[in-house]
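Here we describe the complex-level prediction in full. Unlike the single-chain runs in Section 2.1, the two entities below were treated as one system.
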Amino acid sequence: MIGVLLLTLRELLARKVVLGLFLVATLVWGMLALALQLDVVEGTLQGIRLFGQAPEIRTEHGEGIEGLGDDPLRMIVVTAQAFVAVAAYWVGILLALFATGGLVASLMERGRADLLLSKPLGRARILGGRLLGVGVVTALLSVYLLGMVWLVMSLKSGVWNPGFLLGIGVVFAMFAVVYAIVALVSVWTESSALALVVTLGVLFATIVLAIPGLADRVGAPWDGVVETLHVVLPRFPEVGAYTLPDLARGKSVDDWVPLASSLAFGAVAYAATFWLFRRKDF
Amino acid sequence: MTPDEIAVSTEGLAKTYTGAFGRDPVHALRPLDLEVGRGEIFGLLGPNGAGKTTLVKLLLGLVHPTEGDAAIFGRPIHDPEARRPVGYLPEEHRFPRFLTARHALRLYARMAGVPASEREERADALLATVRLEGAADRKIREFSKGMSERLGIAQALLSRPRLLVLDEPADGVDPVGRREIRDLLLELRQGGATLFVNSHLLSEIERVCTRVAILKEGRLVRQGTVEELTTERRVWRLRCTPVPEPVARALGPSLRSEDDDAGLSAYRLRAADRAELNARLDRLREAGVEIEAVEPLRQSLEDFFVEIVST
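The structure predicted for the assembly as a whole is:
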């Protein structure tokens, strides 16, 4: 398994797009660090520290928002961090999909599969090594981007928001869920292009399914189909719109169901992928 | 053969690809019983679509059997450990093009279960064996077909295999490279390895293989030693002084002139059995024919192969 893992890591390194993603991540936190050094930002931060001049964000009952407290600087910092987390969630996951989407199908190319599968390795270990390699790189990318953003903002503002770090886990977990679709379609069809198209199609479907009251609007008999698909498919938009920002702001999450049902979908999809891979003829 | 003498055995091993969308199923390999002894160089022959590659892939776990079973050194093929003593050179092998030859061999050595302490040394030694030491640090994407083929052979030898399975090993290799591969196979056999060679280069098979099996339309149609298969039954090659015309006429179609050389003539003499052969030889002697040599006629493996697959 380690051999396949190392092979996958080398392959990802050889793909310039992964290095490009690390470069983009560096640019993001680098630009953020530079921006925080600008006089206007510096001055604003100092002003907020000294006089609390930030616009107050309060609920209709006059209370501070949960998790943010009454500290306006903290409010600004954690809101900015939540914005970065959500941007990384949508944009980062899509970019990571494009960077790594072809890896499972390439494992099964004629000539490459023969060399790997003829070794004394179980098929589950071969596919597992491949997926682990993808997971290691995307986890490193998430930790690098979001970890550096958190560090830069925390050092500059003095506001330490550990909740933001939980967001890294959610971004990575949802990438893994979406990648399960890539893996399943790749093993089934051996086509990386089709795997990406289907995955993007499913993501688009989840966005449509997340429209409030959609089932009522489509009416019978399609309302049942809409509700079933909404339950079965990953709830990518809800996790990005509610679960992740709440976690990133250090707020308690009201509803874990979108994340839990997405993880369940991922688990089932991976189980099906391994089952198909074990039965496949090459 | 006793179980200890068997390297590869199959029992009713078969593969059928079910047809999708109402198409007929394809019987790639009909139930096959086969035994390959340890230390043999076993050649697998057959026209395209005969089931040769399917058999190789079944043995290596790349394809799942529809029925039957097989074992490598007594271990069932569905167990990945059965492949530990096996080296395999696929017909079409594609190494990761971004790796250097040295890195590729080290990675595949790890996957083949070569101990960490031996990987570097083993990879370097094999690069030298296949004459790629000068290209060890070049990216595989820069390799020619011949170099890639040699790297494939090095890869197959990484784990010091007791069974080496070669699928079209000399395909696309120039005559010099082909000779090197042949010498390597013979060297490996001398070292006690069993070789299972799938090739359509019949002259190569004839030169190196101790036993041959011929598949046709997924069925085993013949197997035996090269000598058994190529010795034409009941026909002898005769070198002698010219046979007088009346005697030749009397022997009819059983005697056929081939060529003349240095006062001697060559004939093909057909006889139902040894007694009839001797009777005919006696008759020639009585006619004053002096016999230089009588030997069973052998046809080339290629002739035999063409005869078998075209019937």
